[in-house]
Amino acid sequence: SVLVVGSVNADLTVRTARIPRPGETVLGGDAVTSPGGKGANQAVAAARAGATVRLIGAVGQDAFRDVALRGLHAAGVDLSGLRTLEAPTGLALITVSASGENAITVASGANAHVTPAHLPPDLSGVTHLLLQQELPPEVTLHAARQARAAGVPVLLNAAPTRPLPGELLEQVTHLIVNEHELTALHPEGGTLERQAASILPRGPQAVTVTLGAQGSLTVTPRGTHRLAAHPVQATDTTGAGDTFCGVLAARLAAGDDLPGALRAAGIAGALACTRPGAQDAMPTWAEVDEVLQA
Ligand code: ADP
C-alpha cells in the first residue's frame, strides 16, 4: 500500500477581473470551495488509480474540515491516521484573474501542527512512502528516515519550492520536481538532463522532472528516460503535478517497472488537465488504462 504523509487543505477560490493590489478591494464572482493540499491531492490520485492508500496528516474541527476531506472520503483513502487538532483546517485562499493569473495565500493551520509523534509506529504493509513539502520539515524527514530504515522506498515531490535539506534528499529514492522546483535545488548548470543528473549523487536513485505539455524526463544512474506528453486539449492544469506523483506511486506499488509507472503517471497528469479543479479532475484507473491500451 501507499502511505502519504502530507497536507490537507480546503481551497477557497474566487474569480476576479484582476488580482487586487495591496490595499485594494476587488469584487469577484461566487466563492467556490474544493478539497486540496498536496498530500490529500496525491493521496486521492493514487487511490483513484487503484492503490490502497493511507494518509497521515491533520485537520481542524471547523467547517472547512468537511470540504478538505470530501475527496479523500470519496476515493476511499484510509484516514485512521488523520488527526483532528485544535487549530483551523488548512486553507488556501485563491484569487484567479480573468487573464488566468492567480494569487494564492495558504494558511497552514493544522498542517503546521503535525509532529513526528503522529507518524505510525510501524510501516508493515507499506510498499511506498509518498511525501511533499507542505508539512513541518522535521515530520517529512522523520517519515523518510523511518521508511528507509524499514526498506520502504521514498518518493518525494519537492513542492512547493522551499529549501530541501541535504539530510532529507539523502533519504529519497525517487525525487519528482517540475522545472521551476529543479532550478531551486541549485543543480549544476547545463541542460535539464545534466541538471537532473547532478542531483543523483546527493541521494536519489531517480530524478524525474515534469515538463507540462512537454512530458517528463527521468534520470537514473543507468541513463535518461524521456517521455512525450499524452496530447490533450488542456483547459485547467491545476493538480497535474499532484496527479502525476500520486499515480506514479500507485503504479510502482502495483508492481509496474519505472518506465511503465512513468507512462501511466504522464497519461493521468494529461487527463487531469482536461477537466476543471484538482481532485475532481483526477482520472480513474479505467480511464488511464484505456489510453494505455489504445
Ligand atoms: P506541475 O503541475 O507540478 O507544474 P506539470 O505541469 O509538469 O506539473 O505536469 C505534470 C505532468 O502532467 C507532466 O509531466 C505531463 O505528463 C502532464 N501534463 C501537464 N500538463 C500537460 C499538458 N498541457 N498536456 C499533456 N500533459 C500534461
Give a summary of the structure in a few sentences.
The protein is of the alpha/beta class.
Model description:
- This protein has one domain: Ribokinase (UDP-N-acetylmuramoyl-L-alanine:D-glutamate ligase), CATH 3.40.1190.
- The mean pLDDT is 97.
- It is built from nine helices and 13 strands.
- Helix 7 (240-253) packs antiparallel against helix 8 and helix 8 packs across helix 9.
- The chain has 294 residues and is α/β, with parallel strands linked by helices.
- The protein has helices spanning 38-48, 64-75, 137-149, 166-169, 179-184, 192-197, 240-253, 258-272, 285-293; strands at 2-5, 9-16, 32-36, 53-59, 82-84, 90-97, 102-107, 128-131, 154-157, 174-178, 206-210, 216-220, 223-227.
- Bound molecules: adenosine-5'-diphosphate (ADP).
- This is Ribokinase.
